[in-house]
Each structure stands twice: as structure tokens, then as C-alpha cells.
Amino acid sequence: MSVTETLISKIVDANDIPALDRFGIQREHLLTETERKSYDFLRKYSAENQGNAPSYAVLIQNVPDFVYIPNVTDSYEYLSRQIKESYGKRSIGEFLNDGSGEIARKYAEIGKTATLDEFISLLTGKFSEITIGTNVPVSPGKSLLEISQEFRAEYEKRKAGKSFKLWRTPFASLNESIGGLYSGDIYGIMAESGRGKTYLSEVITDELLRQGARVLVKSYEVKSYPWVSRLISIITAREGAVSHADIAQKVGLPNKAILSGNLEGDIETYFFDVLAALNEYYPGTLYLQAKSDAGLTRTLADLDRELHMTELDAVIIDAFYNLDDCYGRNANKTAGGAAEQAARKLERIIGEHDVVGIYTVQAHTERQETEEGEHRTLKLPQRDQMKTTKALLEITTNLFTFDAVNGNGRLGVDKGRNGGEGFTVELVALMDYGVLRELPTGTEAAAQFVGNF
Q1: Residue 152: inside a domain, yes or no?
Q2: Where are the extended beta strands (E) located within 144-224?
Q3: Distance between CA atoms of 75 and 310, rounded to whole angstroms?
């Protein structure tokens, strides 16, 4: 007597052939030839008899070695899980003791014609395949009773601040409009080339770190030194380190002077003090992978692995189209198909790990928007200018559009899944001095600003 014979006996007594499909029992899950023959006969008999199961007598007549067990009380779920666990153990054993020697060959090729990642992918891919094959589906969906109970429990968690996390952006009016940045959601930053999308992502990173977040930044277009140089300008602007000739407020250390190694006197001394204290400055933790760094990874599989390895709260990808996934093979064989699949995979990874996902993306440039210098006016890009794939827009909770020129900046919300669409905020954008903040209005503006940016 086997578990499979027990399950089939229950199906025969209940005249419930659909149970095989409800619980995902396939021929490959069965161990013995008798089990497979009885499975085949059930399928054949059902197809020829309006979906009915045979009687136990007819089954034994056609499969003489089958052992019938009457009045089975064990549940379908339990029996199906036993069958699939046995199948999973056999599958793992067969894979690890592969007679073809595929594992040994791949292992021997590491460092020659194959990488360690490729070997690990072989193992994880097979184990994922086995895991999927051993899952036991229980229900096609949740009942209203289950929904009611789970919804109440989730509400209580959110009320107590124990479920999702909500992080502030650096802009108070934007927080009022969209609520903030929710874990499990994806946010986009879009600007034309050279208009500050990376800078905006750094200002958001600074704000997240101040709130105690653990942030992973993948900076594909900016090397470590200039990225950190900007961050120091942003930090020191919040600290009010330097007086600026055209603004009554204090600003940060000049980024260009840091880049050129041209700070002088007390300013340079202060810079070294900030640098020495950088590791203790934030309540949060920064993990930076920058352009040309040996540790910079470029695939979503790498990101998934990193999220499994390290507890994180937010991931910033600058820019999305630098992921290798965007230009790889694609299943649907359509133009841009790989990028579309990459966007869907990013959505799954961010959701499963319940972190804030932020990406930057470049906007297609229109001819009239290419003017440079003091005559160019602020103009936010529109969602239809998004490069790479429209799937990226579809997975995005809020798309932030951005532009800056001559000390002025503007931030807009072009897509607002939870509200905020059409919102704009005017900004002071002295980005060389670490300043990107909301523009004061009325008497506050008159008191703080002198001159025109």
C-alpha cells in the first residue's frame, strides 16, 4: 500500500477525478509502474465517461497490482503533499547524482569557460524547478471570510506601524500629496540627460539615511568619488556649512571644488572632519555600488541575491536601462521585450522583499528642449517621453519628473497610483552647493532670498 494508492482510492470513492488537477498531481510525481498505470487508467476512463471515476472493481480489473484502500479519511492536501515531498527528494537525489556528469563538468569549468554565478544559477534553477513541482495548490483564491480576517489583521498591523514602512521624501509638500515612499512600491525619477535625475536620487538617499533606512545604491553612470562628493555637499548643506553670496541661507561645500581637490583653509579642514565622521553621521546604512567598482553587479538576479543576503529598506537603481536584463534574450521575441520582462521582474523582486524601489530613467529629448544657458526655461518631461519600455511606467507607483536650470528646480508627479498626479513643487536648485529644497513663498521668500537664480 502506498500514499498514491491511498489518494487514488479516495478519488475513486468520491468520484472526484478533478482532485488530481486541483492538487497538481502529475504522472511524473509517481514512483512505481503500478501507480503510473492506475493514474493513466483514471485519466483515460474519465475522458471516455463524462468525467466520472471508475469503480474500485473496474480499476483493479484493469490494474491488477493496484491495492485499493476503502474509506480513506486523510485529506487530499495531506496525501498530495506526501506524494510531492517524496518526488522532491527523488528529484534532488537524481540531480546531485546525475549520471551525465553535468554538475561535475560545470564545476570544473569555473574560472575557465564558466563563472561561479553560472554554476550557482544551474543549481538554483534546478532547485527552483523542483520547488515549483512540489507545491500543493490548496485553493484558487481567498474566500470572503478569509479576506475579512486577513484584512482586519493587516489593518491592525498598519495601525501599530508593524506592517509596511513609510519613508518621507525630502519635500514636505510632496509628502502631503503622496503620503511618502511605501515599502513594496516602486518609484521612478525621470529627467532629460544631464538635468539632475542622479542628483535628485542622492537627495532622496540622504533623506532615507537620516530616517535610519538601509539603502543599496547601484550607480551605473557615476563613479564613487563624484557620487560621494555630491553627498558631502548635500550633507553639509543640511548642516549650513558655507555662506553663499546670493542667498541669506547657508549652503554646503562646493561640489566642483571637492572634485578638483581645490578646497582651501578652514573649508578644507571642515571637509576632512566631515569625511572622518561620515560613517557615524547617519542613523541609517549606505551600501554603494558605483561605476567601475569591482563589486558593482548588473543583473536583477544579483539584486535578488543581495536582498536575500542583506536586510535592506530601499534600493536605488541609477539608471534602470543599465541593467543587463534590459538587453538580454526575451521570451516574447518582440522589440523591447527584454526590458519589459526586466521591469516585471523588478516589480516582483521589490514586492517580495518589501523594500522601497527607486529607479532613474532618461526622458527622450525634444528639439525645443535642448536649449542651454540662461535663456532655457524649466520644463518637466512627460510620461510619454520615458525611454526603454512603457512597462516601467506601468509598475511605477509614482513617477517623479524633474528639471533644474539657473538655480531653479521643479519636481512633478506625472503618475500617481495613490494620488498626487499633476502635483508640482518649485525648488531652489543650487546643486553645486548641495541645495535642493522647496522654494519659500511670501514673506519667507522675501526674508531669505536676494537676487534672481
Answers
A1: no
A2: 166-167, 181-182, 186-191, 214-223
A3: 39
